Amino acid sequence: MSTAFDLSEDQVQFQDMARSFADASLAPNAAEWDEQEIFPVDTLREAATLGLA
Q1: Backbone angles phi, psi at 45, to 5 degrees
Q2: Is 4 helix (H, G, I), strand (E, B) or coil?
Q3: CB 25 within 8 A of CB 46
Q4: What DSSP letter does each residue of 26-52 carry, written as one string?
Q5: Which three-class secondary structure state does DSSP give residue 25?
Q6: H-helix or E-strand containing 11?
Q7: Dihedral of CA 20/28/30/43: which sign?
Q8: What pTM did the predictor assign?
């Protein structure tokens, strides 16, 4: 038995936006933040304004 699960257009747009934000703002900095034990408050505030936090 299989169940089809399709995202709505709004969900797809949100997913794309979240992926773009992660690719542009999180991934390039994650290793440095981890190594230097940095908590990226400004980046997390930006995520919050996008509805990600």
Answers
A1: -65, -40
A2: coil
A3: yes
A4: ITTTHHHHHHTT---HHHHHHHHHTT-
A5: helix
A6: helix 9-21
A7: negative
A8: 0.83
User: φ and ψ at 30, to 5 degrees?
Assistant: -55, -45
Rounded Cα gap, residues 38 and 45, in angstroms: 14
Q: Name the band, by pLDDT with cuts 50, 70 and 90, for residue 30.
A: very high
* Beta carbons within 10 angstroms of residue 36's beta carbon: 7
Mean pLDDT of the chain: 94
Q: What is the token pair recorded at 8?
A: 């709505």
Length of the chain: 53
The SS3 call for residue 3 is: coil
Q: Are 27 and 43 in contact (CB under 8 A)?
A: no
User: Quick one: tokens of 44?
Assistant: 């997390």
